[in-house]
């Protein structure tokens, strides 16, 4: 305390950004910052005349509405342009010298929070830059001699790691080996990891996310190296509030799973952590969230997966899943704990089994900033895909959705989320009543076609009920009718799969789709690849390349067997939605996620398609554009929030400012996106006494 007071009196640097961090000083400076002794010396008496002063590393993801976004030259480089400039130089002298030979400084700020010096910095993935520490940082942080002598910029480092990935790709190394290579990088240098991911997102998304993340989740206990995220278990009930304080820093976004339905792989218990981590990697690389502000969570409420329970290395609780009230108590305490600690954080529910997913969403969606990715994110990406497909089909506008007849294979959280949103879109397109619009949908589950004769289990199948009621069983299409019969007799135009059943779209079924449609819409959405209802090759072969194809996991474009026509293999994965939706929701200041925000996200995506892409059969913009796609989605979400009266004043002011507000909002969002750039750790402030040549 006394030390702090001393600091306050003697330091030329304002303390306002210190927060509750302990400040740090090295022994070399002649006093121990952590001591409460009144003998502590003020920084101005540090032996080399410079104070060593802790602050948080400045993020370059900013609240762009704040005035202090633009720095003056004597505060740490915060904007990404300033940080990039700083990082080009091998020492402070070099950096300052280039700015102005006459520049003088008073203090040196060491921006490494309350962590220690030397090897501890090198072993901290947040601060570590490896060979990227410039000479001044090496000196000040006590890492001189602990890293190889030569300085490499982040661009050079990224190029080196990328070359290793290319070698692995070219030597057909398993994707999981590439996943491990990247996780190891993340464990030692997060900034470089995200830099690489951002630069090569098209090739690396399938490595760190779907489908490879599925394989990683299957073996997560064995792959475990370094703790990531937070686990809350059933044994933590009563302690969750306090546990959230074990997590450092501010959190803007939480992805939480209970591991009960990981992709199409079923109950993977505590291994579900892998999916939360993978989603958040895309929030960072694709959405522009600061990696310091994301929190992956796995709720370990047990598992019913026998092989995990019998696996002596399984790292989750060795017990059966909680059910009923006990289960919902865990969820509720978790939700309250998060809100108590980080009141503005967005919570994404991920991979909860269908029997709980809808109920959890219903319980919290009106009071918390939250959404379910599998129900809502998936629905929005499929709606975007259908709008994109209408363009490829030459439709004149979105209202043509009402002419489509959909067969949905899978009546789980994904399938029912999709049809609920498509049904609303059909009704909104005009011309059909709610009742009439149900006729555009045929829902199937493992027992075949679902009709009014089906006995539904409530509340689990409540979402199915209106579709079931409206589909009267007939002699032609009785309850339980087969997929081939349903496809043939319904004359459907679109075949969607969220069934988890690999090969469900058989050659007969695909061929029939091709016979009854000039351009059949075929979406095998189940993940990972091993669960897809069909491959791109199968769809292209059976339809001679005419299908408008989109799968949950990535496939290669494929050629029709007769004409050799190239069929575009789009990837219809909710990765197009969640990063931008989250970004928009948080930047707008919204308190809840509305259905209309999701619909706006879908429209934003299909609006981005270019004529050339449409000609080539693309129904989504390219994944390599994901940061811009996310920014476009965020703009629509912000505007929707404003329309609902949910947006904060500063963004409403932009919207009301003039006709150019879309461009302004876009810039606003882009400025808020974090860019993986090394954050300066050592920085001079206050021009007064010393000149550059003094150090
Ligand atoms: N592409 C994406 O972005 C995305 C998003 C979410 C979910 N998914 C995938 O969707 C799949 C389903 O997820 P869920 O949460 O709804 O799972 P779920 O297990 O709750 O639902 C699966 C449904 O498929 C039905 N089904 C099983 N066999 C069938 C068959 N032979 N014919 C027709 N239906 C059959 C089941 O009865 C059930 O209704 C998963 O593989 C998941 O990875 C993809
Ligand atoms: O995780 C994905 O790739 C998409 C989706 O959330 C799923 O559960 O399959
Ligand atoms: Mg999911």
UniProtKB/TrEMBL annotation:
Matching Gene3D superfamilies: Malic enzyme, N-terminal domain, NAD(P)-binding Rossmann-like Domain
Example GO CC term: the record gives:
mitochondrion
Catalytic residue list: 209, 279
Q: Kindly state a single biological-process term from the GO annotations of this entry.
A: malate metabolic process
Task: Tell me one GO molecular function of this protein.
Answer: malate dehydrogenase (decarboxylating) (NAD+) activity
> Which parts of the sequence bind (S)-malate?
261, 527, 573
Where in the numbering of this chain does the Malic enzyme N-terminal domain appear?
Answer: 186-365
User: Where does this protein hold a divalent metal cation?
Assistant: 350-351, 374
Please provide the record's keywords in A-Z order: Metal-binding, Oxidoreductase
Q: In the record's cofactor note, how is the cofactor described as bound?
A: Divalent metal cations. Prefers magnesium or manganese.
Show the Pfam families listed in the entry: malic, Malic_M
- Malic enzyme NAD-binding domain residues are 375-642
* Skewed-composition ranges (Basic and acidic residues): 78-90
- Names of the cofactor(s): Mg(2+); Mn(2+)
Extract the ranges annotated as region (Disordered).
56-90
Q: Tell me the protein family, please.
A: Belongs to the malic enzymes family.
Mind telling me what this protein is named?
Answer: Malic enzyme
């Amino acid at each position: 305390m006394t030390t702090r007071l001393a600091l306050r009196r003697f330091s030329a640097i304002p303390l306002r950004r210190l927060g509750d961090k302990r400040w740090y000083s090295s022994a070399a400076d002649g006093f121990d910052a952590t001591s409460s002794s009144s003998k502590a010396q003020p920084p101005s008496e540090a032996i080399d005349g410079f104070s060593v002063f802790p602050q948080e590393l400045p993020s370059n993801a900013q609240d762009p509405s704040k005035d202090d976004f633009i720095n003056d030259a004597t505060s740490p480089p915060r904007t990404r342009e300033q940080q990039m400039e700083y990082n080009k130089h091998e020492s402070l002298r070099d950096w300052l010298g280039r700015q102005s030979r006459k520049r003088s400084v008073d203090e040196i700020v060491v921006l490494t929070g309350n962590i220690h010096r030397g090897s501890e910095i090198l072993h901290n993935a947040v601060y570590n830059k490896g060979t990227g520490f410039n000479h001044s940082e090496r000196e000040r942080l006590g890492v001189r001699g602990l890293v190889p002598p030569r300085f490499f910029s982040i661009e050079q480092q990224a190029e080196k790691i990328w070359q290793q990935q290319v070698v692995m790709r070219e030597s057909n190394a398993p994707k999981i080996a590439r996943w491990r290579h990247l996780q190891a990088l993340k464990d030692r240098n997060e900034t470089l990891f995200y830099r690489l991911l951002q630069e090569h997102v098209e090739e690396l998304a399938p490595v760190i996310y779907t489908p490879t993340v599925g394989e990683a989740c299957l073996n997560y206990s064995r792959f475990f190296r370094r703790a990531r995220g937070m686990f809350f278990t059933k044994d933590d009930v009563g302690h969750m509030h306090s546990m959230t304080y074990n997590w450092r820093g501010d959190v803007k976004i939480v992805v939480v799973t209970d591991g009960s339905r990981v992709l199409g792989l079923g109950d993977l218990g505590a291994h579900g952590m892998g999916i939360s981590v993978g989603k958040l990697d895309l929030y960072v690389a694709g959405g522009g969230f600061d990696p310091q502000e994301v929190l992956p969570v796995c709720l370990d409420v047990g598992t019913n997966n026998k092989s995990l329970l019998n696996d002596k290395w399984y790292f989750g609780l060795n017990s059966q899943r909680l059910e009923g009230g006990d289960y919902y108590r865990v969820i509720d305490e978790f939700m309250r704990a998060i809100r108590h600690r980080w009141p503005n954080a967005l919570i994404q529910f991920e991979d909860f089994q269908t029997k709980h997913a809808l109920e959890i969403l219903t319980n919290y969606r009106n009071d918390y900033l939250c959404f379910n990715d599998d129900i809502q994110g998936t629905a929005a990406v499929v709606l975007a895909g259908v709008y994109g497909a209408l363009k490829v089909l030459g439709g004149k506008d979105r209202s043509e959705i009402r002419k489509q007849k959909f067969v949905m294979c899978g009546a789980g959280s994904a399938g029912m989320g999709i049809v609920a949103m498509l049904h609303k879109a059909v009704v909104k397109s005009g011309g059909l009543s709610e009742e009439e619009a149900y006729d555009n949908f045929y829902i199937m589950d493992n027992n075949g076609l679902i009709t009014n004769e089906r006995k539904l289990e409530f509340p689990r199948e409540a979402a199915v009920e209106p579709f079931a009621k409206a589909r009267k069983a007939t002699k032609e299409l009785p309850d339980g009718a087969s997929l081939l019969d349903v496809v043939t007799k319904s004359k459907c135009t679109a075949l969607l799969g969220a069934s988890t059943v690999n090969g469900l779209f058989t050659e007969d079924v695909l061929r029939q789709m091709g016979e009854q449609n000039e351009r059949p819409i075929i979406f095998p959405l189940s993940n990972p690849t091993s669960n897809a209802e069909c491959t791109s090759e199968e769809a292209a072969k059976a339809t001679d390349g005419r299908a408008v194809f989109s799968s949950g996991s990535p496939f290669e474009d494929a050629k029709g067997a007769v004409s050799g026509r190239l069929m575009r293999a789009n990837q219809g994965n909710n990765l197009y939605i969640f990063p931008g939706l989250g970004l928009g929701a948080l930047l707008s200041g919204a308190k809840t996620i509305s259905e209309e925000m999701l619909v706006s996200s879908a429209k934003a995506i299909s609006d981005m398609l270019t004529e050339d892409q449409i000609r080539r059969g693309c129904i989504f913009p390219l994944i390599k554009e994901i940061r811009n796609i996310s920014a476009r989605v965020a703009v629509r979400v912000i505007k929707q929030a404003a329309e609902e009266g949910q947006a904060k004043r500063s963004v409403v002011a932009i919207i009301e400012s003039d006709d150019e507000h879309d461009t302004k909002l876009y810039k606003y969002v882009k400025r808020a996106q974090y860019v993986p750039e090394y954050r300066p750790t050592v920085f001079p402030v206050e021009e007064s006494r010393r000149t550059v040549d003094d150090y």
